[in-house]
Amino acid sequence: MDGAVIVKVVIMALILVLVIVTICTCNKFMVLKTRAENQASQIDIQLARRADLIPNLVEIVKGYAKHEKETLMTVVELRNRMTLADTRNERFEANEALNRASRKVFAVAEQYPELKANTNFLQLQTELSETEDRVSKARQFYNDAATKYNIELQMFPKLILAKIFHLSKLSLLEFGKMENPGIHF
Global pTM? Predict the structure, then answer.
């Protein structure tokens, strides 16, 4: 073989290796980002479940605490704001406000022993508590997936491809302060 042919073969092999590495790296980024998006969707599912439980809670409390109408109306408004939110960020913000308002409902319930003894109220309270635990776990799973994605974005030589393809880090969600996770659909 002549020297020029060997050089061409080596150059072609290097180009082929670079193309394969680029494709594999981009695919890994997409897998990691998709996992993070899926985990963010799991948070949405749990928030929707929680929102579905709120009207039942309000109805039960209404029957016992008639003069607590303002607190209950606030909970209903925030629940509606959360379910009608256009963006994930708006939904997370409404959820945080709903968390605070829900605590007030449970504080009101403390003043009514017969309400605290109501089996439907106790069941809803348990379901809401379990849902909050699921939201917290979903947040953690999202943070884990986002962290893996962010680490890959920062590793050399992958960071070069990340910059070329304008891939940006995903923000993490903090407990009690849900922020926009940086996922845009």
Answer: 0.69
The total number of residues shown for the chain amounts to 185
Burial environment of residue 61 by CB neighbours within 10 A (0 to 12, 13 to 18, 19 or more): buried
Contact in structure between 70 and 58 (CB atoms under 8 Å): no
Question: Residue holding tokens 């150059």?
Answer: 11
* 179 SS3 class: coil
What is the rounded distance in angstroms from the CA atom of residue 67 to the CA atom of residue 148?
50
Tokens found for residue 88: 């994930």
Concatenate the DSSP letters of all residues of 35-67 into one string: HHHHHHHHHHHHHHHHHHHHHHHHHHHHHH-GG
Distances (CA, A) of 18 to 82, 108, 158, 162: 46, 64, 12, 15
pLDDT in tens, the chain (185 residues): 688 889 999 999 999 999 999 999 999 999 999 999 999 889 888 888 888 888 888 887 777 766 677 778 888 888 888 888 888 778 878 888 888 888 877 787 777 788 777 788 888 888 888 888 888 888 899 999 999 999 999 999 898 989 998 999 998 876 554 444 444 32
CA angle 37, 42, 47 (to 5 degrees): 125
